Amino acid sequence: MARSSQRKWVTGYLIAVAAIFIIYQFLFPWEGLPIGIYDFLQLWLPPTAVNESLVYVICALGLNIVVGYAGLLDLGYVAFWAIGGYCAGWFMSEFFYQINLHFFGSVARTAPGIHVNFWGVLLIGGLVCAFFGILIGGPTLRLKSDYLAIVTLGFGEIIPQVFFNGDNIAGFNLSNGTKGITILDPIPVGAKNIGPFDFGYKFIIFVLLAALMVFISLRLRKGKLGRAWLAIREDELAASMMGVPLMQTKLSAYAVGAFAGGLGGVAFATHVDGVYAERFNFSISIFLLAMVVLGGMGNVWGVIIGALLLSWINSTGLPAFGTTFNDKFGTSINFPSFTFLLFGLVLILMMLYKREGLIPESRLRLILHEGDAEEDLTSKESK
């Protein structure tokens, strides 16, 4: 039954991916496309918004491993996104112009700087973030709930501030500060180099990265490590009494989740063709957590839906609705300014009426509603 359900999800996503790729790669450049359809797609579903949504999917799946599987509240996940992004900036640009190092790069060998192949930088970014995930996980092993959230929040604030002020660390320029690192190397795919405006091909690459995280999440969920994470999430004391190694299991959750954050950071850097310190703020951590909670903690398919939905509303949905509404009624309401008000209301309603999320994990749904049947029975008997 579970395999049949997963096949349906996979089939549905593959159909959607094929349709979107055909639209952006072949339909958009077609001169015979009616201007009305072109304007509609450009307003409500622009290629940049779709690709950015996939980056959020990659990171949300990583956070789901930490929060949804292992039950470890992480409010500093944006730090891994930032580290992954700066790995792309360091190893795929002319930023360190004093060095001339090329490793299967996509630019001329005479270009100054460090130029590593995009696929290698993905691995570097993921591994560096996994290391920092273990680094933050070590001091928090004995912490729970609010205390754990505070420590991860501190980590999530420290790392972006280091990059924000990293243009002069003891005379060394680590991040170029507020100016950021711009113009990254193109992505090599066979004989073709994918530049910043090759949205269709980038869409396929981001889909493959998201599919990789889906595969990792599902395989780990069914394995011994995944069962250990669920045991810790539901009852840490009982899990330790049953022989689950708490330290090893928690650190592995942080490492795998951070690895996904590194992939997302590298992908986002290539998406915007640069790395900018001001983009890595606390609101992104909350945004990603809202995606996991809305979609359904622990459910891969639910998290994907939550990430796609919230990222689309944030980047395209509200601005497009505001433009349409203001043009029709002659108003000048700034609808995007109500983004967090809307998200806050949605989360409040979810907590009140559907705590398990839109597409909940079966185990979590049973846990959250285990007392509902008894309450209904008691109320009926009292009547």
Automatic annotation (TrEMBL):
Name of the protein in question: Unannotated protein
Give one Pfam hit by family name.
BPD_transp_2
Principal localization reads: membrane
Q: Could you tell me which PANTHER family the record lists for this protein?
A: HIGH-AFFINITY BRANCHED-CHAIN AMINO ACID TRANSPORT PROTEIN BRAE (PTHR30482:SF10), HIGH-AFFINITY BRANCHED-CHAIN AMINO ACID TRANSPORT SYSTEM PERMEASE (PTHR30482)
List the GO terms this entry assigns under cellular component, sorted alphabetically. plasma membrane
Name where it's found: Cell membrane
Keyword set for this entry? Cell membrane, Membrane, Transmembrane, Transmembrane helix
* GO MF annotations in UniProt: branched-chain amino acid transmembrane transporter activity
